[in-house]
TrEMBL record:
Lineage, highest ranks first: Archaea, Methanobacteriati, Methanobacteriota, Stenosarchaea group, Halobacteria
UniProt xrefs under Pfam families: Aldo_ket_red
Domain NADP-dependent oxidoreductase intervals: 33-210
InterPro entries noted in UniProt: AKR2_Oxidoreductase, NAD(P)_OxRdtase_dom_sf, NADP_OxRdtase_dom
Protein name: Aldo/keto reductase
């Protein structure tokens, strides 16, 4: 498990980055650039490249690795576990996050995905058919419990530092918003228990649309309501404080909705997801920092001119981690070359608050 002592010692061993590269996460610190593991084919060759890239990042100053059980059919989790064991760093120095919600395949995509899900999950009783949306998504407590156990095994860890309920807005395709909130609260209560048992340190919600769209959007979920459900879950579990710690959402030059769309009701009126999260004491980990590679090829000239970095990719990364309230921006890191480029982005200053605000004027 990541610890205060381990992460601060790691920071002290990597003190050649620009100001604010390391940021507070609980009583420890994390790099403001993290390793993402979503993209890539489910092949042994890609596993090897990922492993080398993750080890390079961990040994060079990045101490955040993000994955999910469904990424590359469980291969990403397994590679993360191997890379973490092989890297020349202490386990207590790295924050490892994973997610559960999408029913995963095992190593490769089966010829008949529907039959696989039925055989492995529905027929075995791990998933109630009524809880399965689109034939692939479930956030019921028993399923998330099972997925966390599998993730711990894949990663070879005793504790996951942050466990996310993955894209709960997927459930809105077939269920009412109130039903989804109720389901989240029940699952949060189970995760509070798993935190008490030491299997996770914190939990949160990883989203794609839910927190960055207007309140009248079909995929909208209220962040204030989700936070309130987490507090209720903690109380039901007998905890004096919730272990709900973080949210994850996309943020980049072309997808800045988390900063610009004010759809979450705060004490003084509607707020953006970033602003509400900041005031609620939540850490924000952003995904899609490179927009799956698009930003390496194009970026608005007026924005790019304000950003520091030797390459366009570095400038795109530095835009994402400049947003107020962002703890860490995740970047797909599938090769050693990408890992080194991403690490080097941290040697440049992010935008200050005024300069960042000016981008949107």
């Amino acid at each position: 498990m990541a610890t205060r002592e381990g992460t601060w010692a790691y920071r002290n061993d990597h003190d050649d980055f620009a100001r604010t590269f390391y940021r507070r996460f609980g009583d420890g610190v994390v790099s403001s650039i993290g390793v993402g593991t979503y993209l890539g084919d489910a092949t042994d060759e890609r596993d090897e490249a990922y492993g080398e890239a993750i080890r390079t990042a961990l040994e060079s100053g990045i101490n955040v690795v993000d994955t999910a059980i469904n990424y590359r059919h469980q291969r990403s989790e397994r590679v993360v576990g191997t890379a973490l064991a092989d890297a020349d760093i202490d386990r207590s120095a790295a924050v490892v996050a994973t997610k559960g919600g999408f029913v995963p395949f095992d190593g490769e995509r089966p010829d008949n995905p529907g039959a696989y899900v039925k055989r492995e999950y529905v027929d075995t009783g791990l998933v109630d058919r009524a809880d399965l949306v689109g034939g692939q998504h479930c956030i019921a407590p028993a399923f998330i419990d099972d997925q966390l156990d599998r993730s711990l095994s894949n990663l070879g860890l005793d504790t996951v530092d942050c466990y996310y309920v993955h894209n709960p807005e997927t459930q809105l395709a077939e269920k009412s918003r109130e039903t989804v909130y109720d389901q989240l609260e029940a699952t949060f209560e189970r995760l509070e228990a798993r935190a008490d048992e030491g299997d996770i340190a914190h939990y949160g919600v990883a989203t794609w649309d839910a927190f960055r769209v207007p309140a009248d959007h079909d995929s909208y979920l209220s962040l204030p309501e989700v936070v309130e459900r987490a507090r209720s879950a903690a109380e039901s579990a007998g905890n004096t404080a919730t272990h709900f710690r973080a949210i994850q959402l996309p943020f980049n030059v072309f997808m800045a909705d988390a900063f610009t769309v004010q759809s979450h009701e705060g004490p003084e009126g509607p707020q953006s997801a970033l602003w509400f999260a900041h005031e609620a004491g939540l850490d924000v980990f952003t995904s899609a920092s490179m927009m799956q590679g698009r930003l390496a090829a194009e970026m608005p000239d007026s924005v790019e001119a304000k950003l520091e970095g030797e390459t366009r990719a570095q400038r795109a990364i530095n835009f994402a981690r400049s947003a107020p309230g962002v703890t860490c921006s995740l970047v797909g890191t599938g090769s050693v070359e990408h890992a080194r480029e991403n690490v080097a982005a941290g040697s440049y200053e992010p935008l200050g608050a005024d300069a960042f605000d000016a981008v949107f004027e």
